[in-house]
Each structure stands twice: as C-alpha cells, then as structure tokens.
Amino acid sequence: MIGMPARMLDGVAVAAQIRLELTTRIAAFVEAQRRSPRLGIVLVGEDPSSEIYVRNKLKSAGESGLRADLIRLPATARLDEVLEVVATLNAAPDCDGILVQSPLPPALGAAAEQAVFDAVDPRKDVDGFHPENVGRLVQKRPSLVACTPLGVIELLDRSGIAIDGARAVVVGRSDIVGKPIALLLLHRNATVTICHSRTRDLPAVCASADILVAAIGRPAFVTPEFVKPGATVIDIGINRVSDAAVVHRIFADGSRRLADFERRGSIVVGDVHPDVAGVAGAMTPVPGGVGPLTIAMLLANTLKAAEARCSGLR
Ligand code: NDP
Question: What pTM was computed for the model?
C-alpha cells in the first residue's frame, strides 16, 4: 500500500445524491398531504459555530422542499422558556421534526441539554437523542437515529465499503456520536470495539480495525501508527484551530490547507492527521466528509417523521 494515497470518500457528492432522492419523496408527501414536511429548529444564544450549522440546515431544508422554521431565544433564556418552545412545537399538528441546536449556553447548567432532549416528542425527535429512541436503537427496533451516525453508515454503504464481518473500532463514546455509531455498526454485523480516554494501548487497538471511526474532538489526533494499511478511516471531528503552531505541525508547507489558514486566521481540522492518507485504503476528508451527510440525514429523518406521523405509525 505504501505510496498509494487513500481513496477520499466524497461526502459532498453522497449527500447531494441522498438529497436528490429525498426531493422526490418530499414532493410525493406534499402532493398527498397538501403541505410540506416541517422542521422546527430552536437556537438558544449566538454560538458562532451553531449559527453556521443552523444556517446550513435551513438552507438545505429549503432547497429540498422542507419547511424549516428557526425559533431563536437569547443566551439569557431560562430553561423553562426553552422547554415552553419545545412544548409548543410538540403540540403543533403540522410540525414533524424538532431540533434543539447543541450546545445550549453553559449558563443553563449541565443538566439542561438532557432535560431539553427528554422533552421533545419522540416521534418528532429528528436528532434521535430522546431516551426512547436511543432505547429503540439499542434493541434494533425502528426509530429516529442520530444524524451523524446514520450518515456514517450511508457513506460506507454508498462507497462500497463492506461492514458485515469487518472489525470496527470507534474512538469516542459520547451519547450523540460514538455510542450510536458503534450500535449501528454492530447491527450491521461488524465486530465492534469502543475506545475512550482510558483505553490502554490505543494506537494498537485502532491498528486492528478494518473500519476506524474517530469521534474524539482533538485535531489530527489519529496518526498513521493508528491505522492498519488499507483500512477505511472515518473522521467525525470538527475542530476549529487558530493556533498557527498547531496548524503548521499538521499541514505541510505549501499545502492548500495551510494557505487557507493564512488567509482566514483559523481552519477546521478533523480528528485524523492528513498523513493517514499514506496508509489508509479509504478515508473521509474534513471538511467535505461526514459533515454534509449529517445535514442530509437530518432532512431524511424529518421526512421519515412526517411520513410516520401521517400514516399513524408509532
Ligand atoms: P465528546 O467530547 O462528547 O466525546 C469525545 C470522546 O472522545 C469521549 O468519549 C472521550 O473519552 C474521547 N476522547 C477524548 N480524548 C481522548 C483521548 N486522548 N484518547 C481516546 N479517547 C479520547 O465529543 P462528541 O462525541 O460530541 O464529538 C466528537 C467530535 O465530533 C467533535 O470534534 C465534534 O465537533 C464532532 N462532531 C461532528 C459532527 C459532524 O456532523 N461531523 C456531529 C457531532 C460532532 P471519555 O469518554 O473517556 O472522556
């Protein structure tokens, strides 16, 4: 494999294909129901990354024929005010999906996020964070599943990467990324290992993987020694880096990413070091890998929730 650069899995193209397929199904829904599937997005405060994510979600939803409404609350909002907005969306008959953008302002307290996720009607829980949907995922029953994990499976399937029987290692055990990805891979008959900050010999464990998923939140943490030659590496990380020394350690002089950094003063870096391309068989770039899939699966979940509610399922 040495010298053969990894195939880059094109998340932008796969997401565009999924959105195209959804457009047809959304048109059929509109025809039958005389209304568009509707997504309510709740944004509390003005976190700059959240602003960008929400703007992208609204744009993609509109382009696909979904109706998406943004409900804004100030950073000073109290928890009961956030819960009241969720209750209004729960009760709205023409609202099919509810998404409360994470993270909530820290002032709301550590328990606020789970309290808000718990309050969303599970049938409208397009983020798949409600405990009922998480439980259904564990039991492999039909449910709304978290968007990024769903996107990872779509990307693997549509890129022709076999999951059945593969040895998969997921680094990261968060409720919203690591755990659901591990469960989805398990349900597809991968042999799954979940790693975290207390895992011993992490590079060696990772190097046993046919499919390595990095959901850590540390820029360029996964280096070539973590990767078995020819393995598929999925990079979930979205890390904004503004420290020039760190960026120079990751990207080679003269590279396009370094030029981007010089121009903008900061850059988004994944959890996987670019040198991994020299060892992996296939990998996802950041940006342009898993990120676009997350939004496509949000649209898919909204349509799924709308179809299920209108046909009286669940
Ligand atoms: P969390 O911070 O909730 O979880 C990070 C996980 O990584 C934890 O399980 C932690 O272990 C583990 N970890 C941290 N440091 C190490 C280490 N040194 N060695 C081994 N494991 C370690 O993050 P999220 O799961 O929410 O997100 C992960 C990344 O994915 C972030 O960069 C985030 O921005 C990105 N993301 C991207 C999305 C997309 O659309 N592409 C969507 C959502 C997130 P422990 O449990 O022991 O602390």
Answer: 0.97
